[in-house]
Design a protein that fits this description.
The complex is a heterotrimer of chains A (about 900), B (about 130) and C (about 80). Chain A contains 33 helices and eleven strands. Chain A has about 900 residues and is mainly alpha-helical. Chain A is elongated. Chain A starts with a helix and ends with a helix. Chain B is an alpha/beta fold and about 130 residues long. In chain B, strands 2-1-3-4-5 form a five-stranded parallel sheet, with helices on both faces. The longest helix of chain B is centred in the N-terminal third of the chain and has 13 residues. The chains are: A mainly alpha (about 900), B alpha/beta (about 130), C mainly alpha (about 80). Chains in contact: A-B, A-C.
């Protein structure tokens, strides 16, 4: 069933499906309803990190190094933990500066330098070539192996083929076609390729599913689960050692350096930069990617070692290349469908990688390599050409083809003699060269253009010398003596043992030296360098990106005059008239400008136009183009420094303002609280005064009225006259009593009492009080019971005041006694350290909620039966103040309908003296 | 027919003095001890004039005044508010409520008398 | 801003922890001949530690201080036709 045409057909159908997904993605993006605006799609697109290297190569590596295949996935797992800081910052910068590729990023950061951009592009292309060749190798090998079914033969067994008979060649051409179709259908001002991202995300799913399928098949199909598989493998000493680390499996140094290497690769491989940074739709997606991506990596790796062991056990004589185990195993098991699925998985992995990588690279080539050169060649008169969009696209398509052909060439020259993983690591090491200048560029304002140039070039050269050069030797293209004895016999320049550093594996060795010179020169030269104005301003914009708002983004570093119409025309030449108009109008609307009447463009508009252009032709070229239509007054370095200083001062100032306003808020809140309290007090005071005046005026009214009546009516009969005079007298008394009470209370509250404290026998005072009030009791017919010992321990108090309290309590009891069968009990007895007096009546009682209220000023608690009680309402308030100030306590126990007992306790004189 | 006067106040002595002078003047006097009582009595039979104390339990004089003025049955009833609150604001409030006159305590009996007489002799203007 | 610096501390701590746990010194502790359910100790350790790191990362990430997220859309101010 697995004949050549079947395989091809399946592959074709799959590719068509991908293409449909991609165009759907693009169409939806055009309609403004993006399908890739999801953190899950974002994460899956980042999973393009797993290529055929993961699919075939990991198993191959595991077969020789056990767990040693893993550090390449551990590295990203660790790196993502700090992505929220690092990646997000880079994404923010790219969005604000409209950066479209990794070369553009570097070029823009270091003063929009085209040379640096070109260098990065060249390094990227040369560095990724091995990676592309590895994809070609994997696809063609898997195709060839599958074709041999039911035999399991390796392509190397089939002998060398000519180019035209080489599957890999056709694969290369096909992949070029895919890449052109997916990634270069139009020039986008933002360089987003939503369709491509959608297709890549889909392919990540296919990869995972296929790999899990083969994993499950090996673990549970051929064997009985993990335990069974490992136990059997343990019986072979050769295999058992793969369970551990150390000698012959993988060394400490190698593990560590591979981890570090992959940490850098996950960010700085051009294809990773493309999907993770350029194609990112929302910073928030990074959050999900931070845990979901490592989860993907874990899932796709969990079966690698089992598959490797299974393969080693099934094909013990080493005839089958470990890289092909994932195919060979289902083939040996006659699982045709599974084998086809695996092939598709591998194909997915390869196409995803190639498409993204070539799109990224071709963008870089067109924007940062070719265009700057072309624009400078006056002869071509490109500055005058009306429509450059088509030119750009053509350049990109051409570069895609060239890249793939280069990849194929590398494959022919080198690919056969190396395992997949080894080839891939060479590309990782190339990508690592970008790390210092990018990470430095984002966190260190001191990194300069020359420093970057020095570091990058040096690192690249060391990389080439220690990794690429030897691979040519090992493949037989160069004399082996170069490796063993160094070029020209210079032992210290041995590519694998530079300066005599032995004991490291080639990868670690290369990484060490290349990064050393890279970082060393970058930092060293930068520190000695004096950057230009543009570099400084760009550096500030990058490193301080979180401080600058979208609006600023560089416009404050620009000064000059530009004509709006000229700008518009310029932009239109690259992105088309329609789009240019739309963008300009949108900008004008959002800023409230009237472009039709504007002659001169504001700095903001110029920056906007420049960024718009940068999206199509890169920052460096954009700058060149814009400067051709504006007369710029370049800012001197001094002015830039001033602006920077100013900015940092402004930022500092606004921080201070924030702080001050925060403190102000707190103070205001306090003030408000105090104000409310004061108003409350005021209100209380008002209430008091109002009530007092009312209470005073009431008896006054009676006095006046009756006095007038008596005066005006001399013929009143005696009885009436007697009555009225009596009222006058009584009300006068009432008035003066009230005045006295108010004064008493005021004095008590102010603490200005003129008490005569003496040691008293309260029982005597009680008896005196009872005498005074006895008439009240008799008049009302109240049965009075008194429980009072002849003598009680002395207390210290003012006699008159205490008597006033007792009399008050007694008259209250009278006032609130019922008409019939009224009973009042008065009891005096020692209580602990004090003396207690209780006055109990059987009146209407007081509800629990009013127990506190009765002691308040002017509060009179009465029921509807008694109507308004007589008295001023101040009596109990005075009692409370008096008792409190004597160091005692006064309270009431009562419930409605059950009478009330008013009690107070006063401390004994001894106790007080003891205090 | 004698004019009827309703005295609404919670202070017995004030009621006594006002009653005396009203009866002396020949008016028909009724007495209410609080706001609700006052309203009830008005419902039973609308008086020609009400001497209305403001500070009363259950319903204040203001409430009573407002209620009465909202009721067209009492359009012909005069209202004199009597109170210890003497501030201008209170007086304005009382008059705004619809009282015809506003008297502060302690009042002069002669003044009250003359006001009552004036109000009861003159026809009411709406 | 303490929420932010808390988050940053935790992220870096997790990063360092991960680096230690998934590297030689600690890993070689498990590089022994032990088996658990027939599965080699090292294998189990590596994948369990990995999974744990992922879970911790997920927990960490759900509590990102909100105000730092930039919600501005990319590039085009209006959708293309």
């Amino acid at each position: 069933m697995l004949q050549g045409w079947v395989i091809l057909l399946v592959a074709l159908i799959y590719v068509i499906m991908l293409f449909l997904i991609a165009s759907w993605g693009d169409r939806r993006a055009d309609a403004g309803r993006s399908i890739i605006n999801s953190p899950y799609v974002y994460t899956l697109s980042i999973a393009v990190y797993c290529t055929t290297w993961t699919f075939y190569g990991s198993v191959g590596r595991a077969a020789t190094s056990g767990i040693g295949f893993l550090p390449i996935y551990i590295g990203p797992t660790l790196m993502v933990l700090i992505w929220w800081f690092v990646l997000r910052k880079i994404i923010r910068i790219c969005r604000l500066q409209r950066i479209t590729s990794i070369a553009d990023f570097v070029s823009s950061r270091y003063g929009k330098d085209p040379v640096l951009g070109g260098l990065v592009t060249v390094i990227a292309v040369l560095g990724i070539m091995p990676y592309i060749s590895l994809q070609l190798k994997a696809v063609s090998t898997s195709f060839t192996v599958l074709l041999q079914y039911p035999e399991i033969a390796m392509p190397s067994d089939l002998g060398r083929v000519s180019v035209l008979g080489d599957t890999a060649f056709y694969v290369a051409l096909l992949l070029a076609a895919f890449a052109i179709l997916f990634g270069t259908r139009h020039i986008d001002a933002t360089e987003h390729h939503e369709g491509m991202v959608a297709a890549v995300a889909f392919e990540s799913i296919v990869k995972l599913v296929a790999f899990l399928a083969i994993g499950v098949f090996v673990t549970y199909g051929i064997y009985d689960g993990f335990g069974d598989l490992f136990t059997r493998a343990a019986e072979y000493p050769d295999l058992a050692r793969l369970f551990t680390l150390g000698e012959g499996v993988i060394e400490y140094g190698e593990w560590f350096s591979l981890t570090v290497l992959s940490m850098l690769a996950i960010m700085f491989l051009p294809r990773q930069f493309q999907v993770a940074v350029i194609e990112n739709k929302s910073e928030d997606h990074v959050r999900t990617a931070m845990w979901m991506f490592p989860l993907y990596l874990l899932a796709i790796n969990i079966f690698v070692l089992p598959i490797a062991l299974g393969g080693l056990m099934q094909f013990p004589d080493g005839q089958v290349d470990a890289d092909t185990f994932v195919l060979a195993l289902p083939m040996a098991g006659k699982q045709e469908a599974l084998a086809l699925l695996v092939f598709l998985g591998g194909l997915s992995a390869a196409t995803a990688m190639v498409i993204v990588a070539t799109v990224a690279l071709s963008t870089m080539i067109s924007n940062d390599l070719v265009m700057p050169v072309l624009l400078r060649i006056k002869r071509l008169g490109l500055s005058e050409r009306a429509d450059l969009g088509f030119l750009l696209l053509s350049i990109r398509r051409g570069s895609i083809v060239i890249i793939l052909l280069l990849g194929y060439t590398y494959f022919r020259l080198i690919g056969e003699s190396y395992a997949l993983v080894t080839i891939g690591l060479v590309s990782f090491a190339a990508a690592a060269q970008f790390a210092p200048i990018i990470l430095g560029g984002v966190y260190w304002q001191g990194g300069t253009r020359r420093g970057a140039l020095a570091g990058l070039s040096a690192g690249f050269l060391v990389w080439a010398y220690t990794l690429v050069f030897p691979s040519f030797v090992q493949s037989g293209w160069l004399d082996g003596a170069y490796l063993t004895a160094g070029p020209l016999g210079l032992v210290l320049l041995k590519p694998y043992e530079l300066l005599g550093l032995t004991g490291l594996d080639p990868m670690t060795h290369s990484l060490f030296w290349s990064l050393l010179v890279n970082i060393g020169l970058y930092v060293g030269v930068s520190m000695l360098d004096r950057p230009e104005a543009l570099e400084r301003s760009q550096a500030a914009l990058f490193v301080d990106v979180f401080k600058y708002s979208e609006e600023d983004g560089g416009s404050r570093f620009w000064r000059g005059t530009a004509n709006v119409a000229a700008l518009r025309t310029l932009v239109a030449r690259f992105v088309g008239q329609a789009r240019a108009d739309r963008q300009f109008n949108a900008y004008a609307r959002s800023r409230g400008l009237d472009l039709a009447n504007m002659e001169t463009a504001s700095p903001g508009l110029v920056t906007f136009a420049e960024k718009l252009l940068a999206g199509s032709i890169g920052a460096a070229s954009a700058r060149v183009m814009v400067s051709s239509v504006v007369t710029e007054e370049p800012l001197g370095i001094g002015e830039v420094m001033e602006i920077l200083d100013e900015t940092s001062q402004v930022i500092e100032y606004s921080h201070q303002l924030e702080q001050k306003s925060h403190e102000l808020e707190k103070a205001t809140a306090e003030l408000r609280k105090a104000n409310t309290q004061l108003k409350e007090l005021d209100r209380l005071k008002d209430d008091f005064i109002t009530t007092v005046t009312h209470e005073l005026r009431t008896p006054l009214t009676s006095i006046r009225s009756f006095s007038e009546i008596l005066h005006d009516n001399p013929e009143l009969d005696d009885e009436q006259r007697h009555n009225f005079l009596g009222i006058v007298v009584k009300e006068t008394e009432r008035l003066s009593r009230l005045i006295n009470q108010v004064l008493d209370l005021a004095r008590l509250e102010a603490g200005e009492t003129d008490w005569q404290l003496e040691s008293l026998d309260l029982s005597a005072v009680l008896r005196d009080s009872l005498d005074t009030t006895s008439q009240l009791f008799k008049d009302r017919g109240i049965a009075l019971t008194v429980e009072c010992p002849d003598q009680v321990p002395h207390i210290s108090a003012d006699r008159d005041r205490i008597m006033q309290v007792i009399i008050n309590l007694l008259s209250n009891a009278v006032k609130f006694s019922p008409r019939e069968e009224a009973r009042v009990t008065v009891a005096l007895r020692p209580d602990g350290h004090g003396l207690r007096l209780d006055v109990k009546d059987n009146g209407p009682g007081i509800a629990a909620k009013d127990h506190g209220a009765v002691f308040e000023k002017f509060r009179q608690v009465g029921s509807t039966l008694t109507g308004k009680p007589g008295g001023s309402g101040l009596g109990l308030a005075i009692c409370r103040q008096t008792i409190d100030q004597l160091g005692g306590r006064i309270w009431v126990e009562s419930s409605p309908g059950a009478g009330a007992t008013f009690s107070f306790i006063l401390p004994l004189a001894d106790a007080k003296a003891a205090e | 027919m004698a004019k009827s006067v309703l005295i609404a106040d919670d202070e017995p002595n004030i009621i006594l003095s006002l009653r005396f002078i009203m009866e002396q003047a020949g008016y028909d006097v009724r007495v209410a001890r609080d706001g609700i009582d006052a309203l009830n009595q008005c419902e039973e039979q609308a008086p020609d004039l009400v001497l209305l104390d403001v500070m009363m339990p259950n319903k204040t004089g203001y409430d009573v005044c407002e209620t009465m003025r909202a009721n067209p049955a009492f359009d012909n009833t005069r209202i004199i508010m009597v109170t210890a609150k003497g501030r201008d604001a209170e007086r304005e409030k009382g008059l705004a409520m619809g009282a015809d006159e506003y008297v502060t305590k302690p009042f002069s009996t002669r003044d009250v008398m003359s006001q009552v007489r004036t109000l009861l002799e003159a026809p009411r203007q709406p | 801003m303490t929420k932010w610096s808390h988050f940053r501390e935790r992220a870096i701590a997790l990063f360092i922890l991960g680096g230690l746990v998934m590297n030689f010194p600690i890993m070689s502790l498990f590089s022994v001949d032990g088996f658990l359910f027939g599965i080699p100790a090292l294998y189990i350790y590596v994948f369990s530690a990995w999974l744990l790191l992922i879970v911790l990362a997920a927990a960490l990430v759900t509590r990102v201080p909100r105000h730092t997220v930039d919600r501005s859309r990319t590039a085009d101010i209006e959708p293309r036709p």
